[in-house]
Design brief:
With 412 residues, this protein is α/β, with parallel strands linked by helices. The protein has three domains: 54 residues; 199 residues, P-loop containing nucleotide triphosphate hydrolases (Rossmann fold), CATH 3.40.50.300; 120 residues, no CATH class. Helix content is 53%, strand content 15%. The strands form two sheets. Strands 5-6-7-3-8-9 form a six-stranded mixed sheet, with helices on both faces. A three-stranded antiparallel sheet has the order 2-1-4, covered by helices on one side. The longest helix is centred in the last third of the chain and has 40 residues. The protein is elongated and about 115 Å long. 27% of the residues are buried.
């Protein structure tokens, strides 16, 4: 940016330009905040379609940078590590977690290795945050062992951002973490996260959720930890900040345990997935995208199974009805032979039904897909299931034919 005139003129022009930028930035930030509030309130309700449309438009809208932010970045976020750390970053052995007599997690065993990016997913209130607190030593496990590995420095981003002291100014928060820094260094660090000038003297309890999230990130950066525990880190961030965080995590050389419902972030970052469902954690050795694909296959198998069970139920009802209709019919040689064939067909159908149910149950087990051997077994079982279904169709047609023949003989 060039200025004309003397130095005094430059100072005036610079301040005028900054004031104009600040007004435009503040106006846009207010509009964005209103849009984001509407999206949060309506994304899952009756106005979901409108909320999704607004989110799409908001993601494409050009953003003004804060006049105090660094050039080219609205969030100066870079995550470094101070030390490499051990190979075993977190260890869980037979862990059971309970809250007020309710079991959240039962008998979980796993190890997070250095460099892993573990996406931890599951329903709200299922116990993910409780697990993170227990791993950080903030609460006891009911049984088993849960700990951070040796030479591991952990940093915990809490969902409620309780790590940000509410009774301190932003300047004091950063200064307490870096007491050797000069004032300009503290203010410069805060400016990279959107807090400049007098904003550095604001108390944390006056901040919005998004502002408090940026302070939490500013604190986390200074920790230079080699293990990050992130509990819903995108909840209060705007789209631009989420993208900056995702980029920083993508370049981070440490280990990450990420609790999130942000599918885009999970798809972009994870190398491994923990799925918490009904007190059991499945440790899936692949990305979130790979897990979703496996999930879709299981859902399809479950839907096919339900349809087959309904069809088999109708067949059984039909068989029962036909057997009752043939009761009391006088025995004739031809009828006895047909009945024998009916019984043989019923046995064949029953055996194939049992095989279909067993193979389907095997393929619905999520543990089957957690190892390479299990995946290979699932492919073989899938082929066996297709063949069993084909044979079952043929057997049902045969049973129908001999049943109709028995009915005709009984009627004569």
């Amino acid at each position: 940016m060039s200025y004309s005139g003397s130095y005094e003129s430059f100072v005036v022009q610079r301040e005028e330009r900054r004031l104009s930028q600040r007004r435009a930035f503040d106006k846009q930030r207010k509009v964005i905040a209103e849009e984001e509030d509407y999206i949060r309130r309506n994304i899952a309700g009756q106005n979901s379609k409108q909320a999704k449309g607004r989110r799409k438009r908001l993601s494409r809208a050009p953003r003004l940078s804060s006049p105090t932010a660094e050039e080219g970045s609205a969030l100066g976020l870079r995550l470094d590590v101070s030390a490499r750390g051990g190979d075993q970053v977190a260890i869980a052995r037979g862990v059971t977690l309970e809250v007020e007599g309710r079991t959240l997690i039962s008998d979980f065993t796993a190890t997070i290795q250095r460099g892993d990016v573990v996406g931890f997913v599951g329903p709200n209130g299922s116990g993910k945050s409780t697990f993170l607190r227990a791993l950080m030593g903030e609460r006891d496990v009911s049984s088993g062992e849960l700990r951070v590995g040796g030479s591991v420095q952990a940093s915990y981003y809490r969902q409620d951002m309780a790590q940000v002291p509410m009774d301190r100014t932003l300047y004091d928060v950063i200064s307490d973490l870096r007491p050797q820094w000069e004032r300009r260094m503290v203010q410069g660090h805060l400016a990279r996260f959107g807090f400049s000038g007098d904003e550095a003297q604001r108390r944390a309890d006056t901040l919005s959720g998004g502002e408090r999230a940026r302070v939490a990130l500013a604190m986390m950066v200074l920790g230079r930890a080699n293990f990050l525990l992130l509990d819903e880190p995108t909840n209060h961030l705007d789209i631009e900040s989420v993208e900056a965080l995702e980029d920083a995590l993508g370049e981070y050389e440490g280990t990450i345990l990420l609790v999130s419902h942000d599918r885009a972030m999970l798809e972009a970052l994870t190398s491994r997935v923990w799925i918490l469902h009904e007190r059991h954690i499945t440790d899936f050795p692949g990305s979130f995208t790979e897990w979703e694909e496996q999930s879709r296959e299981r859902e399809h198998a479950a839907a096919v199974t339900a349809a087959e069970r309904e069809s088999l139920r109708r067949v059984k009802e039909h068989k029962t009805t036909k057997r009752r209709e043939t009761e009391g019919v006088e025995s004739r040689a031809a009828l006895r032979e047909v009945r024998r064939r009916v019984e043989d067909s019923e046995k064949e159908v029953a055996a194939l039904e049992k095989k279909v149910v067993e193979l389907t149950a095997l393929l619905e087990d999520p543990e089957l897909y957690t190892t390479r051997e299990g995946t290979a077994k699932s492919l073989l079982a899938g082929k066996e299931l297709d063949e069993a279904r084909r044979k079952l169709d043929i057997a049902l047609e045969k049973w129908t034919a001999v049943t109709e023949q028995a009915e005709q003989l009984s009627a004569t």
